[in-house]
Amino acid sequence: MKLAVKNELCSGCRACELICSLSQRGENNPHLAALNIVPHFPVPGIYEIKICDQCGDCAEVCPFEAIHEENGVYTINEDECTGCGICLDACPNDVLTMPDDYTIPIKCTNCGDCVLICPREAIYDADAASREEAV
Amino acid sequence: MLYGYAGKILRVNLTEKTHHIEPLPEYMAREYIGGRGFVAKILYDEIEIGIDPLGPKNKLIIAPGPLTGVFLTAGGKTELGTLSPETGGYGDSNIGGHIGPEIKYAGYDMIILEGKAPEKTYLYIEDNKIEFRDASKYWGMECMEAEKALKSDLGEDFQILLIGPAGENMVKFACISHDYGRQAGRTGVGAVMGSKNLKAIAVKGTHSIPLYDKDEVINIGKQMFKACKEKDAEAQWSIYGTIGVTDWCNEVGAFPTKNFYDGWNPNYKNLNGPTAREEIIVRDKGCFCCPIPCGKYSHVKKEGYDVYVEGPEYESNALIGGSCYFDDIKDVAYGNAILDELGMDSISGGNVIAFAMECFERGVITKEDTDGREIKFGDIDSFKYLAEKIAKRDGIGDLLAEGVKRASKILGRGSEDYAIQIKGLEWSGYESRYAPANMLAYMTCDVGAHHNRAWAITYDVATGRDKLEGKADRVIELQHIRPLFDMLGCCRLQWVEISLELDYYPRILKAVTGFDYDMDDLLKLSEKVWNLTRAFWKKHNPDFGRSWDYPPARIMNEPIPSGPAQGKYIPKKDLDWLLDDYYKKRGWTEDGIPTREKLEELGLNFAVKDLYGV
């Protein structure tokens, strides 16, 4: 699973944010999502989908080496993370966040629920897309 | 603990610049559900008889529902309600976008605005932080500019409700705008906001909504998204949105044309969904969690203008394109942009301008009233001139800003006959002279001539357009189902347009709130609210009754002159038959008032005293 986006298809409904917060954190609250829809209105009138593309910049700056890569997915080890927040600034897409009462950051786990729920197919699995092309 | 609800009501006194937070009573949640139910109950209980709708004693209620902001398809709706300055009766209007969810995340199931701010003010809400802030720098700004300025100052993550110049000047059909092109358009809610010196409400919330059974919400929510995706009608609907029905409406003679003189526009192909998609639409723009975005964002460029606008929706297309008689989708979209920017309802706005165009054609309004300028149907310059005059309440615009009912009373000379309204609310986008069920829906709608509570032209076509029997039953059924969505706080279009099964709604409501209601229980609660709003009209207008339900003379007496419904109209004796049948089946008197027995059956005993004295 490799998350990818087509901004021009996004209608800004934010179902992706809501399912992310609900299925991963058990909270019905899109502000606790590990992805973000940024509207650019009234001009030029487009939504920008900010996702974690597992670039690993967060792992690189983590002073406690608490973020580990496995099968292309970076995961925060909750026991090793001190909540210092240094990784937040390193995220190029601003989708690593630490809300007030959180002790470790919210990070995308690559679960794929956003791909499943997106009604416009604006977030998609680039691996699956390339597999389809190969077939 | 109330699941699915934020559990609190925010009551704001603008005069005193104070607020207090009240717990949401459990009976309100169980008996009135939310949204429209809350609006109707609070207005019934708290609006004093005889007050000025634009005075400080009127209230503006903003209420999302238990499904607003929750994970399901299209839980993004919010009801706004007030004593309507246009009709003097029950007024509400529904809005999508993202504001309702944000109000819930901020911790509120309802905001009640009271009094009048001493200075130009905007209300700042960030969770528990409530502030009355100076709005003088935003006052006078058009809607998009004001929203952009507020977001630049506060942050893009604030959701904003605001009024434009029309609301500031208390144009009776001013709307409340949100998210660069969504509006609570009808019944003059924007005029009431303006009367309170309130330019905007900015909301940001960080709280989660508590769920009764989280796993079941995820489960049913995912099923609803999947089901929508698999519906046959999904693809077509999502490409065009509401404007996609333009062809059909013309082909059945239901497209308001030249101020409802006719029922179809020979140039309708220039105004239809495919033309809009090809020529102007640049983006699909959906409300919160909507899988089938009907919002279409357009860029329109032609000599003299270059603007972005959300729309035109079908309704704007019908009242601007049809009723003001344009033949170029770009002019319709530009007209839509003008009304949106000024902050007036594009249904009433289009209807009022079409009325003025006909008045000019008939010499009831002359060049003396229009700064020496000629006013013509189909002329975008005439449209723009009148819209701006209305928003400023300048000259003839001051009269037109009262809406067609009041304006025609003052203009006289037979203009009441073609002031197309019921109860003072301008007629929305469906010519119904050859659609008895739809006609009855307009006559009995509880805010005036609006299609939101029941829409039944397809039913008329399917069951016989000359037949009266059975139409009241269908209208009553729809008047319970459709407003139920406004109580729940979610959009009805998934059911209406792509046939998402109704069974999902009691199931998801149970998972969200724990309330064990089946669909019949919910429809009974919707009937209760329907009777409550009817009682509200009577409570505030002692002469209210059957005579308030009739359409204007043009609709009642003139056959449609051409097109697919040529020669058709429903004579008064047939309208009376429809009303008799409807009142009887509703358990109302022959004058259309809920009986004591009906009120008691529905648990509205408190209204018996108001209507029957004891």
Number of domains of chain A: 2
Give the class-level CATH name of the largest domain in chain B.
Alpha Beta
Helix count from the secondary structure assignment of chain A = 5
Shape of chain A: globular
Biggest interface, chains and residue tallies? A-B, 33 and 45 residues
The whole-angstrom Rg of chain B is 22 Å
Q: How helical, in percent, are the residues of chain B?
A: 40-55%
Average pLDDT of chain B, to the nearest integer?
98
- From the 3D structure, determine the CATH topology of the largest domain in chain B: Aldehyde Ferredoxin Oxidoreductase,  A, domain 1
Q: How many angstroms separate the termini of chain A?
A: 17 Å
Low-confidence runs of chain B (pLDDT<50, min 5 residues)? none
What is the domain tally of chain B? 3
> Which structural class best describes the helix and strand composition of chain A?
alpha+beta
Figure out the total of helices of chain B. Answer: 26
How many β strands of chain A by DSSP? 6
Largest sheet of chain B: 6 strands, mixed
Fraction of helical residues of chain A: 25-40%
| Gyration radius from CA atoms of chain A, angstroms | 15 Å
